[in-house]
Known about the structure:
heterodimer; A: 3 helices; 81% helix; B: 19 helices; 70% helix; globular; binds protoporphyrin IX containing FE
Amino acid sequence: MLFGRIVKFYMDGFRRMTLGRTLWCIILLKLFIMFAVLKAFFFPAYLQGNEQEKSQTVSEELTNRLISE
Amino acid sequence: MDAIDSSLVDWSRAQFALTAMYHWIFVPLTLGLGVIMAIMETLYVRTGREFWKQTAKFWMKLFGINFAMGVATGIILEFEFGTNWSNYSWFVGDIFGAPLAIEGIVAFFMESTFIAIMYFGWNKVGKGAHLASTWLTIIGATLSAWWILVANAWMQYPVGMEFNPDTVRNEMVDFAAVALSPVAVVKFCHTVTSSWVLGAMFVVGVSCWYLLRGRHTDFAKASIRVACWFGLVAALLTAHTGHQSGRDIALHQPMKLAAAEGLYEGGTSQGLVLGGVLTPGVDWAAPTEQNRFLFQVEMPCALSFLATHELDGYVPGIRNLLEGGYPLLAGGVVLSAGEKMQRGRTAIAALATYRTSRDAAEKQVALKTLRANFDCFGYGYLKSPAELVPNVPLTFYSFRIMVMLGGYFIALFAGLLLLGKYIMRWKWALLLIVLTTPLAWLASQAGWVVAEVGRQPWAIQGLLPNVAAISRLDVGSVQTTFFIFLGLFTLLLVAEVSIMACAIATGPETDNTAA
Ligand code: HEM
């Protein structure tokens, strides 16, 4: 019952929005651009593999950067 | 392995700075305006006057626009950690992850519940419950800021962790030391109180615009009164916490203080530069015959007092910090940059031996050497001591802009409280206030420039410089994303400003009677 009232509270609220509607559209568009475009195409996770492989990569980077300089 | 291209470091930093500065347009307004709208609603609940309800509702509407536009701008920073700053992200381990995860969970639950009641619940929950939700919305947002600032403070003053060479990560050994580090506490207080100042300036600026147009005058005057009281208290607290921040950097990041003061040659009884112009083109990392200031106005002994709480206390300058050799209050003598770089190289070499050796005894010796020199680990990546000197003019002028504007805000709020009756009739004064409203953002951004540019070259103070923290990416791809963001952010900012301007032009639904 309580759950039903909470759902109704949110539904009513969303239905009565005026300016909020525009703001939600902007938020959703922004999230889409960020996750579906930017994260997917421009921000791959640099470190790959399991934890051990990642620590090995960082270890090599950190110890070799010194030597190469 | 190829050396890291210095332009990759610059572009990675530029991209991060762009994202963080854009994010910081919205955050302080959320923190400041949130408290003001909650105060307005408290006045409504205490007086029962419809006027205050409409006033609170109007500022809540602007709060909502700003909140919606700011949502998710911080997420890009987290993408950048994983892609551009992968060594750093791995190296900091759970110390960065834990506060950020707590922030995400708390923010999501508090904000999604209480914001909904705040906007949807006006006629559905009691006055008291509604007011509590409004306060909890802003308390939730402020607590989110706490966790982010804990993470930032740790980078400036790493405590409560131990480096594990098996995982190549710093592991948290003392959560309280990280979460309640003195640097985090002061940073939080200064950041939040300065955001209140910004919120108050915004309310005063918008209200003065109404007065200038002769619209909603009672609403505007009432808003100015509340915002000025709040802003004055906040601005005085900002000055106080700023002073504490100065003390903090004197203790933990003396190079930042030296850069902010343009102090090359330190000593006892040092004066604080109130204002001045630096000689352009001077090399701040080397001695010179040239005068480093074209002119300066100093308050005698004030810097010594700020840094040490003694009028004749010793404050090291850039040269002293690079050359070392001066005694520490806690005992011992400060190492030179060269010695620290040597110890850093020893630590890095020990890590390499530890990770590659199969001989247990050799590993033990390497581990001991690493632990003994770990506090200088990051110095091992530097090619010359000069790299330890941040951009002095940028830090120096940003510091002065922030502090001078702090003085302007105090004078403005106090002036409006004392002489508001007259000032509100002078069109030129109202116009001046409207035009100077954006200076609150300038002060706030300048504060971050001091905090972040002043601590270069470090991603983590003493432990990891940027050159070791960044991922080995193609410079071109970082440049591309920089310009994509610039375009995207500009577009979003234009959208936010126009939606905000529309809402301001429409104005509140008050019937213009404050009584
Ligand atoms: C009135 C005198 C002020 C003093 C003495 C002061 C001092 C400082 C200092 C020393 C820092 C560097 C802290 C660090 O690197 O850890 C700082 C940072 C900062 N300041 Fe100020 N400040 C003042 C006014 C203001 C004003 C008016 C604003 C904005 C409205 C502001 C906003 C900031 C921000 C956002 C930061 C970066 C966050 C932080 O490090 O705390 N400050 N301030």
